[in-house]
Amino acid sequence: MLSYQFDWSIITSGKYFEWLVSGLVLTLQISTVGIIFSFIIGLLIAVMRMSYFRPVRWFAHAYLEFFRNTPLLVQIFFWYFGSYKLLPTVANDWLNNNNFEFAAAVIALTIYTSAFIAEDIRSGVLSIPKEQLEAARSAGFSYLAAMQYIILPQAVRITVPPLVNQFLNLAKNSSLAMTIGVAELTYQARQVESYSFKGFEAFTAATLVYLVLSIIITALVHQYNVRILNPHRA
Amino acid sequence: MIKFQGVNKWFKQLHVLKDIDLQIKQGEVVVVCGPSGSGKSTLIRTINQLEPIEQGSLVVDGFDLSCKKTDINKLRAEVGFVFQQFNLYPHLSTINNITLAPTKIRNTPKKEAEEQAMILLERVGLANKRDSFPSQLSGGQQQRVAIARALAMKPRIMLFDEPTSALDPEMIGEVLAVMQDLAKSGMTMGCVTHEMGFAREVADRVVFMDHGVILEEADPEEFFLNPQHDRAKQFLKQLLSPMH
Asked: Which of A10, A151, B113, B185 has CB atoms 3.0–4.6 Å from B99's, for a disulfide?
């Protein structure tokens, strides 16, 4: 009944191994760029969401609702196919010659994830006692400087666990980039399966690599938190 | 240095400061006391606009607080404020708590700010705690760091809002000693406190408030020996023998 022949050697060396490695490299690139920019944009949107200036607050609110409440896959398609219709031909040609798939995937993932990160950071800020802002303002810090030096550093420390979740989601969601032809890890596993019919081995390998990647991200953030952010609690 | 003229303030319906007239001269130490809810904390907090005023005129060190154009951050840099709950920055070590404002607001070079911070820590008796974090300090130590932090901006005025009320009794003395030392150095000070021993020894004047009104303003000796107002008499009696 079970006539499937396992052959693990095809994914541990040779052509297919190289495909998987090149997929992993791309996944790492997407995740790294995405994590860095989604954090920066998330921080920015969180501060804008709490601004005293109403239009800025509304813009941030609209941004959050829009990108949180639409599917990531639709957003990826939007950036990739939708932007074609809006941009001039010259721009499109240039983009096509410069790995537009990769850029579209990174932009979509970054913006999508930044909306969640912004909300996590905002709830972190709200949990800081208001006396901290008062102490900072009474020393002569402006609202933004107080945010920068006193409130956000504390809020981010509190926000580390949910931030790890968002970073992991981003790394895993990068697999959706295959739908627009980015040859990342999932795409390559699929290729291996198509060429070799060894689907079990190919996707087992991909699964294990994602697992290890996630564990590494968690460990890195944890180390940063313990060593740099909270040295006195270590 | 500080001049209130006909100042009024409301929290929604509640009239918390009523027609306040008060003057604090340079180098003077004024203690504000009164029962809870009397408006004494609100009064002290209006001086650096942690609470804005709604009516009247308030001029602090040349800054007109009833004028919207006044650069409030500039004024606040000249006025040190010490809170009941210390409010140290928990993510920063003692030394960084003290150097943050001078380096970021006054652009003092880091090294110079640290040298000044060490002089201040010496003064409040905590030089050995430079690298401790607030969570590792006792309440009294935290409050002394908070005073050093405020002094690091070289303020022209120091305000204290019940600085010893959150402290265990055995730690009150160490904080009052620092405040007394500061008063002797000629600092202009406004203190909300119930420490009548401190008021007696250090204050130039005592202001007694109730229900948002200044009921008495007197020399400490006179206020303690011969309070004019019934409400003040009652308050002092309560304070001296709370059991009755």
From this structure: B113
Largest CA distance in chain A: 78
Q: How many domains does chain A have?
A: 1
ipTM of the modeled complex: 0.91
B83 to chain A, any CB pair closer than 8 A? The answer is: yes
Cβ contacts below 8 Å, chain A against chain B, sum to: 58
Q: What is the percent of chain A with per-residue pLDDT over 90, rounded to a whole number? A: 74
Put simply, whether B100 touches A (Cβ < 8 Å) is: yes
Nearest to B100 among A134, A149, A229 (CB): A149
pLDDT of residue A227: 80
Tell me if A183 is assigned to some domain: yes
Determine the pLDDT at residue A232.
66
The A residues from 132 to 171 touching B (CB cutoff 8 Å) are 132, 134-142, 145, 149-150, 153-154, 157
pTM of the model as a whole: 0.85
> Does a structural domain hold residue A20?
yes
Position A122 in a domain: yes
Domain hosting A170: range is: 9-233
A62 within a domain of the structure (yes/no): yes
Query: A234 pLDDT exceeds 60?
Result: no
